[in-house]
């Protein structure tokens, strides 16, 4: 049995920021979850649909692990990442840091975790591992999933080795803070600008504000797109609000990040961006409510309303990011 001492198993709202919080607090850096999300330039949007998917996905953040890479680079942290196709080496890669007294981040498919409350495949899930014994591994997951939890070593291995969308090859990572860490408050403006630049100049029409506009055109046809509307639409709405997003498809987290920033930086563009993202968060929750209602009732009018709001959201978020890019 091995357990890292003095790990604060604080389950937060989003999986990757929860894991980052565990690793960074162990390195002596304790900031809020919205600040972690914002410093990692985590906000984005993708409308994802393909022939192999049973139903489209509305994603509200950057790709799995990109937030971690962004945050480490921005704060001058040493990010050590391991990937392998060998089950034996995969276990050594997580056991060794724990044996040395350090928590380790792990990307895996939550479908195989014993404690997980929904049985869906998601290969971009991230947890922090802080211990193990002969039968189980000890993890920190989101508050929604229980915070400090255990799962079987067999299930853990299957979750890490799963293949499919957003999976990684038994990815694990550790973070080391430098002897003289950068002042994170000085990295806020570059993080906001980088996020705004990516959102305003998406390489394809499925991303950023253009992706939201595309969603506005596509969502009204979701009753026809769904194999089982009473299942697919409420599930899509649930993922937007409760699927580790912090509510409103990550817009509530970014709103709270910007609110925290307004106490540190006096800038009218920042305050304007915060007001617009507060508006956007409300609108995203309205969209998810209408999508769920359409699935439950079969009323296509609800999806028409959701589409109209999405068109408004594309405009609101584009304007917000334009303001924030001026910081």
TrEMBL record:
Q: Which intervals hold domain DUF4872? A: 157-324
- Tell me where on the tree of life, at the top rank, the source sits: Bacteria
Q: Which Pfam families match?
A: BtrH_N, DUF4872
UniProt feature coiled coil, ranges? none
InterPro entries per the record?
BtrH_N, DUF4872
Butirosin biosynthesis protein H N-terminal domain location is 14-142
Q: Report the protein name in the record.
A: Butirosin biosynthesis protein H, N-terminal
């Amino acid at each position: 049995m091995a357990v890292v001492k003095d790990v604060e198993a604080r389950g937060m709202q989003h999986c990757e920021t929860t894991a980052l919080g565990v690793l960074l607090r162990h390195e002596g850096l304790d900031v809020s979850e919205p600040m972690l999300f914002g410093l990692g330039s985590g906000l984005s949007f993708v409308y994802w649909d393909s022939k192999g998917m049973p139903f489209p996905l509305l994603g509200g953040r950057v790709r799995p692990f990109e937030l971690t890479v962004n945050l480490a680079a921005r704060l001058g942290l040493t990010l050590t990442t391991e990937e392998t196709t060998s089950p034996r080496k995969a276990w050594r890669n997580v056991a060794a840091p724990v044996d040395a007294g350090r928590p380790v981040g792990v990307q895996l498919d939550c479908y195989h975790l014993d404690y997980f409350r929904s049985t869906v495949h998601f290969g971009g899930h991230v947890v922090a591992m802080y211990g193990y014994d002969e039968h189980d591994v000890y993890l920190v997951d989101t508050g929604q999933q229980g915070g400090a939890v255990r799962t079987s070593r067999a299930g853990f291995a299957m979750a890490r080795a799963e293949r499919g969308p957003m999976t990684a090859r038994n990815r694990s990572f550790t973070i080391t803070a430098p002897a003289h860490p950068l002042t994170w408050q000085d990295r806020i403006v570059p993080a906001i600008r980088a996020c705004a630049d990516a959102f305003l100049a998406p390489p394809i029409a499925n991303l950023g504000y253009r992706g939201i506009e595309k969603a506005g055109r596509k969502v009204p046809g979701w009753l026809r797109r769904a194999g089982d509307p009473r299942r697919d639409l409420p599930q899509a709405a649930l993922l937007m609000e409760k699927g580790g997003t912090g509510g409103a498809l990550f817009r509530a987290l970014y709103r709270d990040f910007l609110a925290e920033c307004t106490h540190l930086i006096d800038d009218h563009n920042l305050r304007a961006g915060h007001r617009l993202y507060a508006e956007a968060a409300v609108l995203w929750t309205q969209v998810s409510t209408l999508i769920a209602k359409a699935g439950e009732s079969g009323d296509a009018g609800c999806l028409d309303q959701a589409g109209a709001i999405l068109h408004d959201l594309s405009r609101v978020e584009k304007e917000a990011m334009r303001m924030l890019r001026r910081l």
